[in-house]
Design brief:
- The protein has helices at 20-27, 47-62, 107-122, 149-155, 173-179, 210-213, 252-268, 306-327, 346-360, 374-378, 405-424, 430-434, and strands at 66-69, 75-79, 88-94, 130-136, 197-205, 218-224, 226-235, 239-240, 275-277, 281-284, 290-291, 294-303, 330-339, 342-343, 365-369, 384-389.
- The chain is α+β, with helices and mostly antiparallel strands.
- The protein folds into two domains: 20-224 and 341-434, Zn peptidases (Aminopeptidase), CATH 3.40.630.10; 226-339, Alpha-Beta Plaits, CATH 3.30.70.360.
- The strands form three sheets. Strands 1, 2, 3, 4, 5, 6, 14, 15 and 16 form a nine-stranded mixed sheet that branches. Strands 7, 9, 10, 12 and 13 form a five-stranded antiparallel sheet that branches.
- A hairpin with a 5-residue loop joins strand 1 (66-69) and strand 2.
- The longest helix is centred in the C-terminal third of the chain and has 22 residues, at 306-327.
- The chain starts with 19 loop residues before the first helix and ends with a helix.
- The protein binds glyoxylic acid (GLV) and manganese (II) ion (2 copies).
- One manganese (II) ion (MN) binds at residues 98, 105, 140, 397.
- The site of glyoxylic acid has 3 residues, from loops.
Length: 435
């Protein structure tokens, strides 16, 4: 075989395969589809999100779909089946990003869904079910301190909408919805009933190194890890940096620093699937000559089982209480997000694995996702399955995120095979799947 020329991102790439879904993610990776000029940040209901939805809606129409924006701000394209109004296979992922993001986390899954439909429509193929491609608006929780708001609305599991939650600029979710023309009172009308839906399929970059190490282009997800997100506040006493003796200080930042090291130690002391992360930290008043009074930081704890996650959370709480008690600093820990571990549907996952084997000629690699996905919320509505694509060195939530065009093409073939096999069987129902 002749050597494969490198792609612009430095990855080897099959010269003949240019994946339109990957190219479209690249197109969406810059202003005006990013809220920042430098790097990619697309926040829920921001200007960049609106521009992105307009562009993606055009691609949906070109692929043969109608499109609508639902009551939660999700963009949904629909490709009718043989019978108008038939229940839909949902293919989704998210269009929002973290700050300074990669281009493929979430967006690639939406682009692959559109490509699936474009392929069917070009051949005039209608299925016993409709296909709806959903670009969820808020998976990351990178604008407001609450994630998966929009998939929770679609799945019908959003109990209360945190209208008072505030973004970095001080706008509340209520204000932002109003400016986007969305009525908070109707937000939950985005919900589907189980009867409207056949199943949910999400394609996503792995965001980890497992498939690359196994030399596999794609893999199937068996389950998604349990997640907690907390907001931790520590409040001490502000003082003059020149006059307050070290022994008399109640320094909130010094307490937080000790806490961070303890969180890292506890995270590393459990099974390999346990992880604990502090990714955000604010210091007040934040001046070089003032002993810090207040620190707030995020705490994200995940594990394959709720039991392991919960035991780590308890150890961390105890450690933080000890540290703050010793230092005379007040502690407050608020739970912001609790996502249960989510098994993917075994029957659908087996079907997806069969499609992977048919397309690649190799048995499907099965793996657990440490990253959260809209699929874990959608599982409350309908059986879900997930296809992972290899990503370069497992790097994600980072502008260096990269995927190979030929892997995206393989993923497309797997999705088409899976859908066509699903269409060849009697229309499945949730009860048949969960039996
Ligand atoms: C989303 O990417 C998450 O796993 O937090
Ligand atoms: Mn992400
Ligand atoms: Mn994602």
């Amino acid at each position: 075989m002749s050597p494969i020329p490198p792609s612009p991102n430095g990855l080897p790439e099959a010269a003949t395969v240019v994946s339109r879904p990957v190219s479209r993610c690249d197109h969406l990776g810059v202003h005006p589809f990013s809220d920042t000029q430098d790097g990619l940040f697309r926040a829920y209901l921001s200007d960049a999100h609106r521009s992105t939805c307009q562009q993606v809606a055009q691609w949906m129409h070109a692929a043969g779909m109608t499109s609508r924006t639902d009551a939660a701000g999700n963009l949904i394209g629909r490709y009718e089946g043989q019978t108008p109004g038939a229940p839909a296979l949902l293919i989704g992922s998210h269009l929002d990003t973290v700050r300074n993001a990669g281009r493929y986390d979430g967006t690639l899954g939406v682009m692959l869904g559109i490509e699936v439909v474009a392929h069917l429509a070009e051949r005039g193929e209608r299925l016993p079910f409709a296909i709806e491609v959903i670009g969820f608006g808020d998976e990351e929780g990178s604008r407001f301190p609450a994630s998966m708001l929009t998939s929770r609305a679609v799945a019908g599991t959003l109990d209360t909408l945190p209208l008072d939650a505030v973004d970095a600029s001080g706008s509340t979710l209520g204000d932002v919805l109003y400016h986007a023309g969305l009525d908070p009172a109707r937000y939950r009308e985005a919900a589907y009933t189980p009867e409207q839906v056949v199943a949910y399929l999400e394609a996503h970059i792995e965001q980890g190194p497992v498939l690359e190490a196994a030399d596999m282009s794609v893999g199937v997800v068996t389950a998604i890890a349990a997640q907690y997100r907390f907001k931790v506040s520590m409040v001490g006493v502000a003082g003059h940096a020149g006059t307050m003796p070290m022994s008399l200080r109640k320094d909130a930042l010094a307490a937080a620093a000790q806490a961070l090291v303890e969180i890292e130690r506890i995270g590393a002391s459990g099974p390999a699937d346990l992880v604990a992360t502090v990714g955000q930290l604010h210091v007040g008043p934040g001046a070089s000559n003032v002993v810090p009074r207040q620190v707030t930081f995020s705490l994200d704890i995940r594990a394959g089982t709720a039991d392991v996650r919960d035991r780590a959370a308890t150890k961390i709480r105890t450690a933080l209480q000890d540290i703050t008690d010793t230092r005379g600093v007040a502690l407050r820990i608020e739970l912001q997000n609790d996502l249960a571990p989510t098994p993917c549907d075994p029957e659908l996952t087996a079907r997806l694995a069969t499609s992977v084997a048919r397309v690649t000629g190799q048995p499907a690699h099965r793996l657990v996702s440490g990253a959260g996905h809209d699929a874990m919320v959608m599982a409350a509505l309908t059986p879900v399955c997930m296809l992972f694509l290899r990503c370069h060195k497992g790097i994600s939530h980072n502008p260096a995120e990269a995927v190979r065009h030929d892997d995206a093409h393989t993923a497309l073939l797997v999705m088409l095979d899976f859908i066509q096999a699903l269409a060849a069987t009697p229309a499945p129902t949730p009860t048949e799947f969960s039996a």
